[in-house]
Structures are given as structure tokens and as C-alpha cells.
């Protein structure tokens, strides 16, 4: 398990814990909301739109996957229907 060391020499830990004694006063609700919005905007700036060929490739992959799953579920449904008809008759 690797942990990065901050400038104080203490390891940075993710998550919430009671070990926030040296981190200063707790931020208010609006400061936390503003920080969240700034972080969201920073992450959205990293997003890259796919090119036309990449988008077409993704579309075809999803379409083939959905069709394969539909065929699989359809065959299972057909098989179970035949078994039910055979067991209970008509």
C-alpha cells in the first residue's frame, strides 16, 4: 500500500476521518459548495470530445453488444418457453 507524503512528512490519506486536527478550521457549507463547483469545472475542462470516426466506432460497438444481448435473452426465453410447454403441456 503506497501513500504519498505531503510537505509535512505525514502521509496523505483519502476519505473522512477524525484525524483532521492539524488541518485548520472546518470550511463552511458555501465554501465547500464553491470548492465542489470549482473542482467540477476543472474536471470538465479535461474532457475531450471524440472524433467522428471514434464516435461511429463506439456507436457500432454498443449496437452490436445490444443486439448480441437481445439474441441471447431471446434464445433463453424461447428455450424456457419450450420447456414450460413440454412440462405442462397444452
What sequence of helices (H) and strands (E) makes up the elements?
HH
User: Which overall shape is indicated by the principal axes computed on the Cα atoms?
Assistant: elongated
Give the proportion of residues in helices: 55-70%
Count of alpha/pi helices: 2
**Which stretches are poorly predicted, pLDDT < 50 over at least 5 residues?**
none
Kindly describe this structure.
With 90 residues, the protein is mainly α. The protein has a domain at 51-90. The chain contains two helices and no strands. The radius of gyration is 27 Å and the shape is elongated. The mean pLDDT is 84.
Secondary structure layout plus pairing:
Layout lengths: L28 H17 L6 H37 L2
Short descriptors:
90 residues, mainly alpha
Care to give the gist of this entry?
Helices cover 60% and strands 0% of the residues.
Amino acid at each position: 500500500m503506497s501513500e504519498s507524503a505531503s510537505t509535512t512528512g505525514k502521509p496523505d490519506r483519502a476519505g473522512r476521518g477524525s484525524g483532521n486536527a492539524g488541518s485548520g478550521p472546518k470550511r463552511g457549507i458555501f465554501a465547500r459548495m464553491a470548492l465542489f463547483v470549482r473542482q467540477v469545472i476543472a474536471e470538465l475542462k479535461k474532457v475531450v470530445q471524440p472524433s467522428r470516426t471514434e464516435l461511429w466506432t463506439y456507436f457500432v460497438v454498443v449496437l452490436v453488444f445490444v443486439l448480441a444481448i437481445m439474441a441471447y435473452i431471446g434464445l433463453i426465453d424461447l428455450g424456457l418457453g419450450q420447456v414450460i410447454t413440454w412440462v405442462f403441456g397444452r
